[in-house]
User: What shape does this take?
Amino acid sequence: MKIDPESSADFSAQIAQSIRGAIVSGDLLVDQRLPSEAELADQFAVSRPTVREALKRLAAQSLIRTQRGATGGAFVNRLRFEEAYDQQVTTSTLLLSMNSVSFDVACEARFALERSCAPLAAKRRTPDNLATMRAEIHRQSQPGLTDEAFCASDVTLHRALVDGAANKVLSYQLAGAVEAMQPLMNMITFTARSRERIVDMHTELTNALEAKDAILVDQTLIKLETYTRDLGHSIATANPVRSKKQLKKASSKRKK
Amino acid sequence: MKIDPESSADFSAQIAQSIRGAIVSGDLLVDQRLPSEAELADQFAVSRPTVREALKRLAAQSLIRTQRGATGGAFVNRLRFEEAYDQQVTTSTLLLSMNSVSFDVACEARFALERSCAPLAAKRRTPDNLATMRAEIHRQSQPGLTDEAFCASDVTLHRALVDGAANKVLSYQLAGAVEAMQPLMNMITFTARSRERIVDMHTELTNALEAKDAILVDQTLIKLETYTRDLGHSIATANPVRSKKQLKKASSKRKK
DNA sequence: AATTTTCATTTGTCTTACATATTAATGTCT
DNA sequence: AGACATTAATATGTAAGACAAATGAAAATT
Assistant: This one.
């Protein structure tokens, strides 16, 4: 294990890359303990703080976890779907907000992905999935619901649909698409979105899913997409330049 | 800006979370300079190494970049699609390899996602996309091609198809799915996969795309999925327990 | 005016030290 | 002998101070 002193990159970055490679390639297995920080410092011929910076980089990607104490140390972490979700959502959200992705493009991607699991969901949806969706629809119908709660409920419903496909990999991939869209969706919810129409379509969607009618599910999703994108267009026309401040406000509101 | 000394989490993790929140919420804008490490250490009332560990965590997620020198410091990084790709691929790859995701499930997810951009690609594919695909097909037909090169070419072809949808968000989401499958695909390529049949289907796929025949594109992808999954089943039956070592070897071979 | 020099600022790294968490071994008491 | 407290060892977490190196801006020089 060596690093290149001539490289332009930081030592800590090089060390992190080296260890990351060992994990990805399988040289380091799940739950395996890495050498102690002092040993790593020796092996890489750097100081302990430098090694620590490298380990923190890996910890930030959930590749390792650390434990204090006598039998402690850094261990290769089993990357769980839950953690991967979070990173995916964070990354996707920033990607959208920092790259001036149009509402239209994001929307198109979101529904294309969601529709991709519609046939599977129609086949495999459980009573549990349906119950979740109906519960959210009921919540969405209540008049006193805040805008943020309505949005959160919307996400939960669509997540239930995605989970209906009973494919963890799909659910993971979709999480980013659905959640990252939320800030952009809020932009609309706080203005023109008609809850009644949304609830109607959600009901239609759930019914189609219950009937295992894949085609109808797909059509309903298309309808929902069309409605959403039309709303986006009308907003863009009425108020083409929306300030970052407003967007930010709408985005932060949904946090619990 | 404060942290909780009573919290179970590390200071560096708390500080990173705090700054991450400021970036995600929009309090810190792209290219904005963070306070110097010394100033941050003051503000959070911790030492400089602790602040540095926090900053390295953020750097690992591409949320900030650092620059040395008089006007240097840490700056909020504009997250680019390219960087996001890489993280997605790394995360997805580890997720698959660490969670005993069956080939079948991964395959189903991959093709479901890929098919989701087929209609868009059929509509928007450029001559460029088609040229890339045909070039890869030609490469795949050459007898002397190594297995690794064939796999890489396969990925390039499918990426061209995805890019044909002309939706950056879709391309980003799909990157993880396609690339992360590669190690699992190799498991098959190095054994039973018939290049001839694959090339035939790739050709059919490209022709359908050129003809803007969305339905035929979809059907061909289904055919490809069926063939791939059948192969997976036959492998599983013939050689149910495949050693980690073999997988690792197949996986590392594809790197350039 | 152009060029060179100096200098202040900031990150990158090292060294040393101490605090704290955790386990294992040891010792003590019943 | 067994249960419990003590101690020691090992590891990460944090702090403090120092120097190196990069970088850009200001000052000095030609």
Notes: Chain A touches chain B through 65 residues (CB under 8 Å).
